[in-house]
Amino acid sequence: RQKGLGVDPVCRVLELSPSTYFARKKRPKSARRLREEQFMPLIEKIHAESGGTYGARRITRALRRKGVVVARCTVERLMAELGLEGVIRGRRRRTTVPEPSAPRPPDLVDRDFTASRPDQLWVADMTYVRTWSGWAYVAFVLDVYSRIIVGWQVANHLLPNAVVKRL
After folding, report:
1. Predicted model pTM
2. Residues 37, 35: Cα–Cα separation, whole Å
3. 2 lies in a domain?
4. pLDDT digit of tens for each residue in the chain (167 aa)?
5. Same structural domain for residues 74 and 33?
6. Is residue 116 assigned to a domain?
7. CA 51, CA 87: separation in Å to the nearest integer?
């Protein structure tokens, strides 16, 4: 309050009446909120019983087996509010492991990614995308001025010869 950060100055900036703030503060919790607060301990209990592995889908199924009818989106929202998340299946793949002693390519544009005309500056990048058949590696060249992809190339273990596309 002494720093000018009380309710009145904040409400003035937000163009709200201070009485609106105080009325909201006094208002009882909604029926939805009261119902959700009943779900929260159940969600925490099921998550803990699973060893912290269950996500929203499995917790929703477990609640329904116990006779508690709740939507999955509600469980997702409440889990986020509680800071809970399930374990993600599959191997985590670390794709980039930089070698500290490896030489770095020179920064030829000095981090200035602006161009005053087309075809003045092209930049390239590479990324990877997980597909049903494995990882696909995509390299592309971008015109900085128009931000249009000028060319790209895709490769993965199923494509021994890279597929090259030029636009």
Report:
1. 0.48
2. 5
3. no
4. 666 678 888 888 888 898 988 898 899 989 999 999 999 999 999 999 999 999 999 999 999 999 999 999 999 999 999 999 998 877 766 667 778 888 888 888 888 989 999 999 999 888 887 777 777 888 889 999 998 888 877 776 555 554 444 44
5. yes
6. yes
7. 10
